């Protein structure tokens, strides 16, 4: 029995039609955030896909001290609130320190536990206490089954409004792989599962001072994940990926968003129209 989370009119469940959590890797300017939200919102409305806007106000784990991190908490929340007010969509963003959880929860509907920080107990407890919906990123160094420990921390802290997000596993140097057999393990916990396809395209540390990426493979990888029958897709897009201030090599070009989502929705509809086959 798969659990369902309700965000207004949006239902998040592995049994429900796919939801798109999409936007920018990191907030750059308010105008860019609004442009990106406008594209996602209008295309998702056209295709009948429930939509949640995502962007980070701070990227605290950049490869270089001099790399762009974002506008920070105060300015970032102002930009996110501007998106919410204009497009009437739920918001998702990540926090990096316990003291950020409460102010972020006042604006944002879903708080994200970053992959690298997913075992930080103080951060987990602070996030749980907000009673916001939580998106738990699976760390690159954790096996899917180890997500149970993080789930337990949230439950013990009094929050069961949880989502799980796959983003790939470390494989040797400068590489990530996505094990499709990991999705059934994540689904076995019954919480909605998202697939962060653009971060799964990363090649960590493969450039002199930043990650590289494999943007050309985004459609193939996204189709593989959606074929597992999950709650939705998490992705980042940019009107000019080569000029993006963070993770441009992984970002989907914004002008390719509509045909991309059109194909993914068709696949999700097909997968969820079929009865599962028990081959155990």
UniProtKB/TrEMBL annotation:
Q: What is this protein called?
A: 2-dehydro-3-deoxyphosphooctonate aldolase
Which biological pathway?
Bacterial outer membrane biogenesis; lipopolysaccharide biosynthesis; Carbohydrate biosynthesis; 3-deoxy-D-manno-octulosonate biosynthesis; 3-deoxy-D-manno-octulosonate from D-ribulose 5-phosphate: step 2/3
**Subcellular location(s) of the protein:** Cytoplasm
Q: What is its EC number?
A: 2.5.1.55
Q: Molecular function terms in GO for this entry?
A: 3-deoxy-8-phosphooctulonate synthase activity
Q: Which UniProt keywords apply?
A: Cytoplasm, Lipopolysaccharide biosynthesis, Transferase
GO BP term (any one): keto-3-deoxy-D-manno-octulosonic acid biosynthetic process
Question: What residues does the DAHP synthetase I/KDSA domain cover?
Answer: 9-272
Catalytic activity, reaction form: D-arabinose 5-phosphate + phosphoenolpyruvate + H2O = 3-deoxy-alpha-D-manno-2-octulosonate-8-phosphate + phosphate
Q: Which family does it belong to?
A: Belongs to the KdsA family.
Q: Which InterPro entries has this protein been placed in? A: Aldolase_TIM, DAHP1/KDSA, KDO8P_synthase
Any GO CC annotation of this UniProt entry: cytoplasm
Give the top-rank taxon of the lineage listed in the UniProt record for this protein: Bacteria
């Amino acid at each position: 029995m798969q659990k369902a989370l309700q965000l207004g009119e949006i239902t998040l469940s592995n049994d429900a039609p796919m939801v798109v959590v999409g936007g920018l890797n990191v907030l750059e300017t308010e105008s860019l955030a609004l442009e990106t939200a406008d594209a996602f919102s209008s295309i998702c409305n056209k295709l009948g896909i429930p939509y949640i806007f995502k962007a980070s106000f701070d990227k605290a784990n950049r490869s270089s001290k001099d790399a762009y991190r974002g506008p920070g908490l105060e300015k970032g929340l102002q930009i996110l609130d501007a998106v919410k007010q204009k497009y009437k969509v739920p918001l998702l963003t990540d926090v990096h320190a316990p003291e950020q959880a409460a102010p972020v929860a006042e604006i944002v509907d879903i708080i994200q536990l970053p992959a690298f920080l997913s075992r930080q107990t103080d951060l987990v407890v602070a996030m749980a206490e907000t009673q916001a919906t939580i998106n738990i990123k699976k760390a690159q160094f954790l096996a899917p089954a180890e997500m149970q420990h993080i789930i337990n921390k949230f439950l013990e802290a009094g929050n069961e409004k949880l989502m799980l997000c796959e983003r790939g596993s470390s494989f040797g140097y400068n590489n990530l792989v996505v094990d499709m057999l990991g999705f059934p393990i994540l689904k076995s916990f019954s919480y909605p599962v998202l697939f962060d396809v653009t971060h799964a395209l990363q090649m960590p540390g493969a450039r002199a001072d930043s990650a590289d990426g494999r943007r050309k493979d985004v459609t193939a990888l996204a189709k593989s994940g959606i074929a597992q029958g999950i709650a939705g897709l998490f992705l980042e897009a940019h009107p000019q990926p080569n000029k993006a201030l963070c993770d441009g090599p992984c970002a989907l070009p914004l002008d390719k968003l509509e045909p991309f989502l059109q194909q993914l929705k068709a696949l999700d509809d097909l997968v969820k129209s079929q009865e599962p086959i028990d081959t155990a």
